[in-house]
Design a protein that fits this description.
By secondary structure, the protein is α/β, with parallel strands linked by helices. It has a single domain (36-219), classed as Rossmann fold (3-Layer(aba) Sandwich). It is built from 9 helices and 5 strands. A 5-stranded parallel β-sheet has the order 2-1-3-4-5, sandwiched between helices. Helix 8 (151-168) links the parallel strand 4 and strand 5 (172-173). The chain is globular and about 50 Å long.
Length: 222
Amino acid sequence: MNFSTHKFFPDRLFAALLLALTVLAMALPQAAAKPLRLMAYGDSLIHGYGLGPGETFPDQLQDALDEAGYDVTVINAGNSGETTAGGRARLDWSLAESPDAVLLLLGANDMLRGIDPAEAKANLSAIIEALQARDIEILLAGMRAQPGLGADYVDAFNALYPALAETYQVPLYPFFLEGVAAVPPLNQSDGLHPNADGVARIVEAILPSVTGLLDQLREAPR
């Protein structure tokens, strides 16, 4: 009997098995990275007041990101009529969606109701702090006050978004309705809410800010 054959057979079998497993591993496709979850959090401008399926901001943003090749799920967390206080109150249960990033758009209804900008700023501060405590990235979208509210109110309201962005070091998209506000063909009959074409204009304009946030999120260790 050749004892050397018995001695080395297990080693050869192990080597062959290891080689087979290595080849198999190389042949398998790389596991896809987990899709990012972007939550659009805000009021009727997010929720899609007066719009149909596929026309809302989250829907059109999802389409634009898909077309750009981003593996992202956009979550519609808008609530029509929401103030900053309301957004602050419902934040915890909204975060059950487990977002990686939040596009934060609140304040328009505070402005329309004449709520003190200092109160809106305090509520937005609390929201931002809660998100940052959970390591959730933020894109802050600003609004602008209507001129008829008076110079003091307009100045105080318009200043709160840049101040928040600086304080918390978050990216700011200065005016969500840029190029759409006060443009009748891009708005519904109430003159306040964008129509589907208006939303398309918003998405086109804000998309680089959104993709910049997502690129940064992908590159950061999680």
